[in-house]
Amino acid sequence: MTKAERTKKFIIEQAAPIYNEKGVAGTNVDDVLEATKLTKGAIYSHFKNKDDLSMQVTDYLLEKICSGIAQVMKKEASAKGKIFAYLDFNKKPLNPYIKGGCPMFNMAVEFDSDNNSSIRPKIGENLYVSQKNFASILREGIKNGEFSSALDPDAYSFKMFAAIEGAIIMCRAMNNERPMQGLIKSLKSELEAYEL
Prior knowledge:
The protein has 196 residues and is an all-alpha fold. It is built from nine helices and no strands.
């Protein structure tokens, strides 16, 4: 990695928690300058403008959260194990894997349907793919005889993903992780009801 590549990586890594906590609209270049202790010229020698920086930080955050989830899930062989690993990954919303919480949900809230940002479609695609990946895991579990065919993989995956993402925000707002523990227990019990 060249010095320029290392500097660019450093800028993205330092900017990421700021973007994740303040949002794209709420983050300004001065925030990034303060975090990196670099000059505006140094920042703009690596990024065309704030939009370019925002897009690359978004890519970094999405890659980081997806990679973290994938790492814990790939340790499990069964469909149930993979889904439970995802649920457990989210059991500490006050001390999340990425400072500020889940970037997919944070940015989805920021870029609602009234916002035409180029980041919005990227977030939507990541949410869609994540939910479909969970459904695919459950379909494999049905195919392998782990779960009954009465399980609706799409409905359960959407419910699970939406519930966990919403609970992260609610627990953080209430400064209380206990509701998340109850939700995870309930989602696990619901899935176990379909075991063969």
